[in-house]
Amino acid sequence: MQMKTFFLATNDVELTSIRFNKQRRLTGEYIVNEGLPRLLDLYDRIGVRSTFFVTGDIALAFPVIIRMIVDRGHELGSHSYCHDDRFALDQLNLQEQTNQLSKSRKLLEDISGNPVVSFRAPALRVNRFTPIALHDSGYIIDSSISPQRADMFFSFGAIKKLNRLWAARYPGYVQKNDLSKRGDYPVFEIPISSLIIPYIGTAMRIIPYSLQLLRSLLAWESKLTGNPINFLIHPNECMVEKDNDSRARRSNNPFVYIIAEQLRGYMKTKNLGESAIRLYEQHLLYFQSNGFEFITCKDYFEYWKKTKEN
Q1: Is residue 171 part of a domain?
Q2: Residue 85, pLDDT score
Q3: Model pTM greater than 0.85?
């Protein structure tokens, strides 16, 4: 019997402007009018059911986003309450994290009328308290770990992500104080696909040909092991912000400013808008033609449980 293979299209929805490197309400307006409709239309054309991780603050400012996602048949997940660096989970204690996660989950459920069980941390920044905070806040699924990803020094919270180099590549329950390791704590981790290079929209836009090679390697691994493909993209990548706001500086550390802001910011603005949609469509069609099933995080977890029971 041939092993089933799955592709998880996972989307982070937040007020972070790629061009201006800060949180902006105007970015939310671009998402509502340009970025999200393009992404949803692409999924409709190909027949993709996906998971959208949405921050509480953008849901509060633009509740229409929630209806756009849910009405198209996609899963709604949480991306914490705010993407601002001041609330990065790796800087918060257990109680502070629980407050952020609970507030986000309640807001999303109140707006959508649907249970929210899946979570992804902003900037994938977590610490030893995060598994407990997730469990205490009512989440079942997490997707914040990208194993063997070597570009961490281009991102915020890089030093605290070093353990990702040894993270498990396969989905499963986690250890009580470590999302990157497998154990018996009742939080289910679905890793973001990566192998040195992360399989995400940013890399797709910056190094499209290298990502085609990575795509082939990940597809081969998936067919061999059964590990799902988990691709991360933002509706912010599917739009072009054309106003003249100023770019914000987020760090006073000169090294972080040059590497994680200036250089990364320059690269991250490549192939935004329609170009990103065209590149992403090629990846989705590749996996569709290779027999992968498009599935949400929640539905994949239910499938995983059934296979373990049998």
Answers
A1: yes
A2: 87
A3: yes
Q: Is the pLDDT of residue 288 over 70?
A: yes
**Which residue's entry shows tokens 């106003």?**
243
Could you read off the pLDDT of 90-146 as tens digits, one per residue? Answer: 999 999 999 999 999 999 999 999 999 999 999 999 999 999 999 999 999 999 999
| Token couple for 64 | 């229409």
Count the Cβ atoms, other than its own, within 10 Å of residue 49: 16
> Is residue 228 in some structural domain?
yes
CATH of residue 205: 3.20.20.370
Number of compact structural domains in the chain = 1
Q: Which domain holds residue 148?
A: 6-309
Cα angle 31, 34, 35; round to 5? 55
Is residue 107 one of the residues assigned to a domain?
Answer: yes
Q: Look-up: residue for tokens 């609970």?
A: 102
Q: Is residue 87 part of a domain?
A: yes
Using CA atoms, how far apart are residues 161 and 261, in angstroms rounded to an integer? 17
Q: What is the pLDDT of residue 139?
A: 98
Tokens of 120: 């992804």
Token pair of 114, please?
Answer: 């649907």
Q: How confident is the model at residue 150 (pLDDT cuts 50, 70, 90)?
A: confident
**At a CB cut-off of 8 Å and minimum separation 6, what does 79 contact?**
12, 13, 14, 53, 54, 55, 104, 119, 120, 121, 122
Cα atoms found within 13 Å of the Cα of residue 52, Cβ hemisphere only = 30
Spell out the residues 6+ positions from residue 238 whose beta carbon is closer than 8 angstroms to its own: 34, 35, 36, 38, 39, 272, 273, 274, 276, 277, 280
User: Residue 20's pLDDT band (boundaries 50, 70, 90)?
Assistant: confident
